[in-house]
Structure formats: structure tokens, C-alpha cells
Records
---
Amino acid sequence: MSRGRVIAVVPAYNEEGAIAGVVDAIRSFDPTMDVVVIDDGSRDATSSVAASRGAAVVTLPYNLGIGGAVQTGFKYALEQGYELAVRLDGDGQHDPRELSKLLAPVERDEADIATGSRFVSGSGDYRPPFARRIGITWFAKLVSLLIRQQVTDTTSGFQALNRKGIALFAGDYPSDYPEVEATVLVFKHRLRLVEVPVQMREREHGESSITFVRSVYYMLKVTLALCVAMVRKYTVPEEEATRP
Amino acid sequence: MTPVRISIAAAIASVLLILIVLELIRGRRLKERYALLWLVTGVVLLVLSAWRGGLNTIAAWLGVATYPPAILFAVTTLFVIVVLLHYSTVLSKLSDQNTLLAQRLALLEAEVSRSRGGTDGGAGDARSELEEPRTSGDSPAQR
């Protein structure tokens, strides 16, 4: 069987319970789409479950965090010569049936990267809890201001990318909570970004005081990272960009 | 004025620092790149402790003429901060390189296990036995 032209990149950390369903759902959405699961140093059977469902598996020797895992997937896509990539999370919050909406603008070459947004009008009924909503609004406003383009869902990891987008993220991808910063990266490299309304199955999050402190810490950290990203010097590593 | 004993003690300490750094370089336990800052620290401290008039003059400029050895502490602190900052940059670089290596290793392992037909898992690590042969109909193209 020949290699497809689209690959689904699925980062997964200790997701042995969910990963089979995710891989199966992608394959039933489009049997020609290849799937690579990036096992981010899981201690459970994520790798073997994914492999048994017919996904290619890249097993990281230890946990790199979401950014490092996602980047590994894009490196794989770049090096294996895929034309398009989609990214879905291994926990099953992204529904593969929404992929055609994401792929459409990239395939029509209207965008290099399409991000699934829960908040573009017409994208269903996701109502985040109050604390999260503040964070989401803050980053949407801040990022929209920085990149001079309206974005509504900066933390979404549900994306479709063309070869340019794959090459960018394979060469340079932020490490912790990478999606917000990656948006600025896309802007800085003058790639075209669109948001597409999608439905997501949101995982429940508890609202303890620890979560609140954490989310404040997270907001400060990512805000700082955003400011740094705006003034950083950009050198896309040639070594990564030109590897066959 | 700087007490003579402080000058002597500081000079001895500086010489010791320089000698230890040189010995570490000689034994290849310290790379020259990282030793340079320490050597500069040692030399500057040595100069300031031996050249008492200079220390007093600088102290007068900075308004601590009543206790010139404070300049020695200040300079030492400054250099320690610079060395630590340098270490942070080295650490950041190492951590980036470490990530790059882990990714490269994982990608190569996947490549190896695929070119062996997926029959014997990864490159012999503890996880190999978890990696089962791929099921039919999805095997990536031969390269």
C-alpha cells in the first residue's frame, strides 16, 4: 500500500485508554490518511496499542512535553515527505469528522495553517468555566493585537498544515503550552493562518484554588513568552528545514 | 585604607583560584571555554588585591572610602553573577540540544523498526517488547 499524502500527527502521553479510539476514528474518517502517534515517554501501553491499530509510532525516550512531542510529529511528516498534516490530540478531544473543515482551506491553498476554533461564530456551544474564559479572552485579544489578525481560539491544537507549515513547526516549535506562541511564530514567518469553526469534546477541568494559581502562573508565563516571541530573532534552523 | 592583611589574604585566594582553574584545564576537567570567565575573575581580583592604591582610588570614586575591601566583595559578586548567567545560557542550549537528540533518536528508532519490517520492535530498548508488528493494510511504503 502506498503512502498517503496526508498524515495525522497525534501526540499522546499515557493515553492507552483513548488512543485506540482516536486512531480508529481517524482511519474511519479517511482510510487513506496515515497516522503517526508520538508517544511522549508514556509509562503505559500507549505505543503498543497505537501500533496494534495500525498507526506508525514514534516513541520518545522520555517525556518532552506537548511542544516537543508535537514537533517530533512534524519532523516525521516533513522527513517522510507528506504534503499535508493534521494534528489531533491523543485524548480524543478533537473529532476527526471535523477534519474536512480544517483541510479545506489548506487544500484550496487559501492558508498554510488552519486552526480549529471553538469560538468562531457558528462553532457550537462550548462554554468554558469563568477562570478559563478570562484566560482565553485575554490571549485571543492579545494575540489578535500582536499579529494584527482576528483570532479567537489561541490554545487550540486542532490544526491542518501544508508543507510550509510543517517545515516551520518541524524547525521551531515552542515547548510549554505551545499553541499560543506558535500563532505568533506563524505570523512572524509570514505564513497564512485561518480559523475554522469546529466542535470539540472538552475534557472536564476541576476548579480548585490550585487550578486558579496555576492558570495565573500560566497566563503570566505565556504572556512573557509572547512578548519575547515578538522581538526574538528568527533563524529557522537550516539543518531541519533542508533535511530530505 | 585597606588593611594589609585583607590584601594579602585576597591575593592568596586569587592566586589559588587561578592555580586551581589552570590545573583543571591541564587535567582536561574544565573546558577552556568555561574556564576563561573564571581566569578573568581570578586575575581581576588579584590585581585589585595587590594594587592597593588602585583599590583605594576606586573605593573613593564609589563613595566607600571608609572601607575599600567592599570593592573586592562587589567585584566578586559581579563576576559570580556573570558566571551564573553564562551557565544559564549553557544550560538552555544543552536542554535544546537534548530535546533535539531525543527527537532524532525516536525518529531513527521508528525508521529502524520499520526497515526491519516491524518484526523486532525498536532498537533493543526496554520498550521493544511492547512494539508489536504492525497489522495489515497500513504498512508504510518501502523506501
---
Amino acid sequence: MSAASDPLLDVRGLSLDFGSPRGRIHALRNVSLEVGAGRVVGIVGESGCGKSTLAYSIIGLLAANAEVVGGEIVFSGRNLIGLPDSEMRALRGREMSMIFQDPMTALNPVQTIGAQMLAIQYRDAVPTREKRRRAVEMLAKVGIPDPESRLKAYPHQFSGGMRQRICIAMALLVNPSLIIADEPTTALDATLEVQIVELLKDLQKDMGCSILFVSHHLGTVAELCDDVVVMYAGEVVERGSVRDIFHAPSHPYTEALLECDPGRIRQKTRELPTIPGDVPNLIDVPDGCIFRSRCPKAFDRCAREAPAPRRVSGGHEASCHLLDELAEAAP
Amino acid sequence: MSTAEDSGGTRRKTVGDGAFMQHLRQLSRDQLGMLGLILVLLIVLGAIFADWIVPYDPLKIYAGPRLAPPSWEHWFGTDQLGRDVLSRVIAGGRVALQVAIATLAAALSVGLLLGLIAGYGPRWLDNALLLLFDAVRSFPIIIFALAVVTLIGPSLYTVILVVAITSIPNYARIVRTQTQAMRTNEFILAERAMGAGPARILAIHILPNVIGPLLILASMDVPLVISVEAGLSFLGMGVKPPTPSWGTILNDGYSYIRNSPWPVIAGGIPIILVTLGFTFLGEALRDIFDPKLRKDL
Amino acid sequence: MWIYFLRRTVLAIAIVAIAVTLLRVMIHAVPGDPAVMMLGPRATPALIAEFREKMGLNEPFHVQMVTFFANLLKGDMGTDVFTGRSVTQIVMEQFPYTVELIFTSVGWAALVGIPLGCYSAIRRNTLFDKITGIASVGTISIPSFVMALYALLIFAVGLGWLPAVGAGEGTLGDRLHHLILPSLAVGIPWVGYTARIVRASMLEVLGENHVRMARAFGLPEMRIIFRYALPIAILPTITLLGVGVAYLLSAAVFAEVIFARPGIGSLIVNAVDERNYPIVMGCVLVTTVLIVVATMISDFVNALLDPRAREGL
């Protein structure tokens, strides 16, 4: 296999448990996804589906009670699972960087923006002057006015939207090949969200890095991403290009998600559609398909057997028995 | 609406138990708290039944040789007048208990009153009282006590007065906070519209909510109160000799520290035990009452 | 930022004024003739009259208060009833000894307590942490004067390692030598307390988002502790130490008596014995000022360390 066609990030069958007083929580089960170089991949799913957990396991910042029980995370050809912390640290803030959900608490309140932006460049053997210049340049790119003087300001002197821009600037400043963005627009209001997404789009095209974009907001994902991974209760239920997912959803959960998105409602209605039922217990994972209890199309096979990912078209996969049925029914 | 799943982590209440029994049960599970409770009971009972359990009369001089080290006859040895130190230590608990009870009673009642006034009264009164509380609280107790003693002379009552005054602000604050919270409570307004008097409101709405924090505060406060009494007595500003108080025992011991270390050692032990006991008890109480309080508010 | 300090200064002066007024008023609040009260068994009619004259008790009340404050502003705290010397002079002679004791005690708390607490947080649940925890609770539970007595007993009387009496002569070394035991006796409970507070604070801050982000950028752990965690975790401790000066002063009174050190504590205890109210008042005044200044210093340090504090108020 030539290096050029290998994805930048290849998560293969990752399974992760959390230890808790009530038992082991199987937070991620057999999760697989790929992020190609220069591609933007979105992870969508409702709260608690494990998308943030997945993001944190890639960058290696999980809680102490987390344990990987299977699978690999291959980044630039290396398996990150089992990598000693010192080597993991060498990757963080270099090859990969992260944008967090809450900009109000992500920055160090007692250091100036400038000091923080210089700190993250600590590995570079260039003079401080140059580091400062880079910081100013990046702040200008993300749209902070008068960046030169703003370096001396403290985080609390900026608004939420501005702080998130600064965080984005910092994530890009280290010139990573992969940026992991954990719901970066969730804490911002709608107009800010649009601006941030536009900014990310432009910057990504400019710098050519890959982005792993975690979100529960479908509209944003449709706008920004090239590929989408749909997660439910710790499993990947469908993945494909953004076009595949939004125009030809092949998993009942994806279909339900799309139907529930307020932006897609075409007819006037009194009630907003919801998906009935609750997320299953992840300590005692039920047999069969994980979505069965809430799926309007479930049948008897769904209770016995967990569906394996099946190809819908090139690069588009979904884990649903119905696809089997369809394939068999087709002549 | 989705059906909620039982997460299995809720605490079960035994049907029919009153709040007191529940709290007691919770306390019994906390080892340090139980230790604290035992220490406290030990001291309190020792003080109450002092007259019956002392091996010698605490005031009797030359019950043994002067400044003798510990022996079978005198477990803590004797002081410079030949008095049995153990007996004096046990009897000293009585003074400590008196001070603690008197101060608590005064601080609670006056604190309750002031807290209610601050909570219910006009804004300016509230602010004025708060300022007063802060001024009193930020002042070194001992220095304040010494100033008062200069004016009205040393005695047990002086000590009680001073300690009570410095304790009141903390109690008043708790009552004030709760009162203010209750003031705008719609339930209360409804009751008042129906003619409920302030006594009823006090008893039913305010008291149950402040009991917890007041108890915690009291158990944190008592060791301080006892220490201050002992300290003042040590300086000769508290109880007058020959009444035994842990402070006077330490004072006597200090004067003769080069002859015999035992009175000093013995005098310090009960103070340390009392402080430890109430600290453990207080922390256990906080564990019991605080989570509950957070939910209520 | 300067407006902030201006307001704090005004507030501080107000507190001093209130405390002092209360004390002056207290003389009259007490039932009976204050002169009789204060002269105690020595009271003879002639002495009482002289005392009243000296203390200005014969003037109408408001005149007394005005004179009192006017004198204060001049730096005059009255004259000692017995020796006739200026109270200000007497008190200021003793003041430096107490200040050096308080300062050293706070120094122990800060210089030993903060690193202990910090290390306990980084190495939580290790043996070090557990031992420090127990030691902290233990030392906090011992009242300061008991601690002082035991320290005297063990190290001065028993082992003879350190001096039991006095503040030392002349040389800095000797003075420091005499400071060790008293400042430890006063400061050790605070070392424990500070360590506990810093530990709790550090654990909280280490779990916060900005620390997580710093880790996400691969910053070295040392830098994270010293730039991203500790400066924030320390802030409540600074305030605490400032407020704690009041408690330290109470402890200092005992330490000075027990170790026979000169200072405000010894002075006030002797004055109380003699019923020498002007001296007592002078000491109280100086004490109040000291507390207020300490609180202001801790506020100042707080504002220095925390840029957010500079905006408020």
C-alpha cells in the first residue's frame, strides 16, 4: 500500500470501557472511521453517543478510569494505543491539536493571549520575535482586529466568539496535520456559529489540514464536512460522504435524525418530531442491533443478531439488516 | 415524554423513619464521625459526673507529694500544691462545658434574633448589621477579650460574654440568609395572607432549614470557645483560682515547667481531644447535612 | 485599579474608626464609674479624681470623642496612667517584635504550606499525601497556646535546643534564633491549614478546562503546574492568610507570654493586669491597624496575581 493512499487517521475497531462503581461502561464498541489527508470528517450523534469520548481517545486525554479494550488508532502509520505518554505528548500541539467546546474556560485566565500563543510554540527553535509574528499573523487570519496590541490582553477581555477564534488560531498556529474540534460551536449562538464555521472552512482550505469535527448539529456538519460518521450509543451506525448521508441515508437512525432536524421541516407542523425511547444502558449492552428498541423498522432478526457494516455504495456503509434484505430482494 | 430508566443508584429510605433516625444511621456509617461523637460524649459525661468519678478532691492540697510524676496513685501526677492533676483535669471539663453551653445558648438565641431582624428588616438595617458582624468577626478574639477584661475584671462571666459576642455573627448570618430566602417564598406569602403569624413561619419554615448548618457551626465553634476560655484562664483572665480549668492547670504547669512537665502535658490533652472530637463530629455532620442542603436550596 | 485601592483604603479606615470608637465608648457603656472600675482596689477619692482628670473623663461626652480623634490623628494615643510616658512611644517600642513574629509565622505558612499542598495535590493518594493530610488535621486541632507550651517543653526545656526566653540581642542571627520556636508554635497550625486549602484548590484547578487544553497542546507538566494551575489555586490562600493575621495576633499574644518575648502581646497582658486602659487601647488600635494593613496587602497581592481582580469593584 502506498503511503499516499493511506488515510491520515485510521481508527480500526476501537473499543473502550469506563470503570464505574456500577460496573464497566462500554462507551465505544468496535468503532471504525477514517480521516483522509486534507479532508473534513464530521461525527454526529445525540448526546452520550460517545463522539466526544472518541475525540478524546484520539488525542489521548481520557479520564483515569478509561481503558481501551480493543482496536487501534493509527495516526500517520503509528498505532497510538499503548504509546508511552512522552511520545503522545510529542504529537499533541504538533501533529494534532484540539479545539474545545467552551471558549469561556478554555484559555488560561492569568496569562495574556500572547504569552499563551508563544507557550504553545515552545518546541520551535526560532526567536521569540518570530513566534510573536506568527501569532499576530494567525490572529489576523481568524479575524481578531488589531492583533498586535491584543497580544497583551487577557482572555476575560474578549467575548465568547472572539475567544473561540483565538482558540482556533492557537490550534492552527502549530501547523498540525489533524485538528480535532469537539463541538466548537455548541456554546455559541447561531450567528456566531455561522461565522465560525465559515472561518473554519476558509482556513482549512488555506492550510490543508484535516479536521475531525464533532457536533450534534446536522446543519453545521452539512455545511463544513466532506465525510460524515453517524454514531449511536457507542457504535458507528453509518458513514459516508456528506452527500451520501444527507441525500441517501441508509440507516433508520440517520433517517430519524434528519427528520428531527428543525431546519429540514418542510410542512407546517405543531409538534416537532422526536425519536421515541431512550438511549440503552451501556453497562449491560443488549444483544442484537443497538438501535432496535427505538427503530420503527425493527424486525425479529434485529433482536438476535447485531448487524455488520454493509456497503451501500463506494465509501458509504451502514450497519442495518434491512440492507441485507434489500440486497437479497434485488434481482 | 420518554420513560425514565431506574439507574439503580438512588438511596433508599426505610419507610417510617423520621429524619432524626436517618441522620443517626448515616452518622453511624462514618467512622471518624463516630470517633468524634465518642470523644465528645466522653468529655461531656466526664464533666457532668465529675464529682463522682474524680479519684481525689480537685481542690485538696497535698493529696500527694508536690510535682510528682505519674504513678498508680496519681495517673497524671501532682501539681505544685500537691493536688491530683487527673482530678483537676476531669473537673476542669466542667468549666469548659459551662462556657460551651452558656456561649452556645447566648449565641444561638441572640444570633437567631439578629438574623431574623437582618433578614426581615429594611435594607439599611441589614447592611448595618452585616458591617457590624464583619467588624466583630475580623477582630482578634483574645485582644478584644483583654480589652473587656480591663474594664470589667476577670471572671468566668467575662469570658462567656466575650466569647458569646464573637460567636454571634456567624450564627446570625446563617439565620439571616435563610430568612431572606424565605421572605420571598410564595408559599410563605400565601400563609401570611391566610393569617399565619411570624412564630409559625419561624417554626415551620425557617428553623428546619437552619438546624443543619447551625449544628455544624456549633460543633466547629465549641472547640474554639473552649480554647479561648482555656487561653484566657491561662493568662489569669478567666476563672479565678483555685477553681480548676484546663487553662489554670496549664498556667500552674507553666510556672513550674522546669520542675515537672506533667501538668502542662496533662492540661493540654483534654483540649486537644475536645478539638479533635468536635472537628470529626462537625465534618461528619457536614457530610450528612450539606448534600441535603444543596438539594433543598 | 487605583480606584479599587482607594475604595479599599477608605473602607479600611472606616473599620479602624469603628473599632476604636467602640472601644472608647465601651468605657462609658460599662455601668458604674469607669475610673473606679479601672483603678480597681487602688481607688481612693484623690486617685479617682486625678484619673478622671488625666483621662479627660470629666469633659462632656462629645468633647471627649472629638479630643480623642483629634489626638489620634496627631499620633497621640494618650499617656500611660502610671508612668506618664506617651502611649504611642511605649506601644511603638514593642511593635516591631510582634511584627517580626507575625511575619515569620505567615512566612512558615506560605513557604512550607503552599509547596506541601501543591505536592500533595500532584501526588494525591500517595503515602506523602496521606501523611501530610493526617499531620495537617492533627496540628490544626491543637490550639496555638497549647502548641506553644508543648514546643517550649520539648525543644527548650526538654532538649535545650532552642532558647526559651526573650527575643535575642542585637545581631540578626540571635534574633532569628529566638524567633524560631515562637514562630513555629504560632505558624505550624497554619502550615497544615494552608496545605489543605492549597491541595483542595489545586485538585480543583487541575481538572479545569484550560489545564486540559494546555495538555492537549502537549505543554510540559511542570509548566502546566506553575503557569496554569498554581497561580490560580493560590488565590484563595492569599486572601486567607491576610484574614488569618487576626488569628495569628491572638496566637502571638500567647507566644509572647509563654516565650517571655517583648511585643504587643506581652505589653497588653501586663497592661490588663495593671488595669492600664490607655495602653490597652493603644495596643488594640495598633492591632486593628495591623490587621487592616495585612488585609490590604493580601488584596494587593491578589490583584497582582489575578488580572481578573483588577477589573472588579
